[in-house]
Amino acid sequence: MPGWIPAFICLVLTMNSLNSSFEDAPNKLGANDINITQFYVGQGLSVLIETSNNTILYDTGPKVSGMPAVSTILLPYTTRRGISQLDHVIISHGDDDHSSGINFLNEYFKVERWWLGGSAYQKFDINNSKRCFVGQQFTADNLSLSFLHPSEQSNSQRSENDSSCVLLTLINKDPEAAILLTGDISKRVEKNLLQLLKLPKMYMMSAPHHGSKTSSSKKFIQALDPDYVLISAGYLSRYKHPNKTVVRRYKSNLTQIIRSDQLGTVQFRYRNGEWYGPFCIKYSPKHIWQKTDNTDTCIARLN
Ligand SMILES: [Zn+2]
Q: pTM for the full model?
């Protein structure tokens, strides 16, 4: 038997087991495994980070057809995965497209720690909540997570968007796997971050403010040099996110663009020190542009 056949079978089995690790949920992730899922929540943002023993949600998304996106999109996923507790919920800021599921989550999930940014801290009276600000950090299995923004002093001059909690996630022992979640910060905050902090190269980042032209400066993109950018935007939204110039900027940096309005809900999986994905997954309401849930077509549909 040629030597490449076992190797080929091994590759097929590995890919199958990666697929089944999602489809056969619930199953516990291994000690160093991570799932990162950007849900399609229309015009808004919601990203879930899962490790072996921890689940971290960054933003809830808006209401969709009068229902919080977390009730129709996140809940079916977490139910299937056997997740009933969220260890950390971060609400980047108080705008509806990021925070509309707070009351639902508070009712249906056990949340160990809330981190609230912008007006969300004043608007919602929630037990176990803290205001996010630079320097605060926590760990989750093999992850170290820290807030890079805003500053501790509340600043009445700062816009709601610029009050967003910016979260840096580092995978221990893998300096090339940094992830940055940016809420809706503008170029002004991007500039501050570059001036004040030494930021690592990113494996993945969320495009600030859904890829709006007010964010994603050329200098910010070049400094972070992300392999992937997650752009969460509503399909045919009146906001017309992402902005074409911003898309061009990421492309010219050779950053792979992952648009929720084109791909729906997308998951990346970290296994044995390697990233796999993106996988297009089923946990969004069907849209006319989502013809299949097949992994291959997800990759084929990438720009
Ligand atoms: Zn937003």
A: 0.88
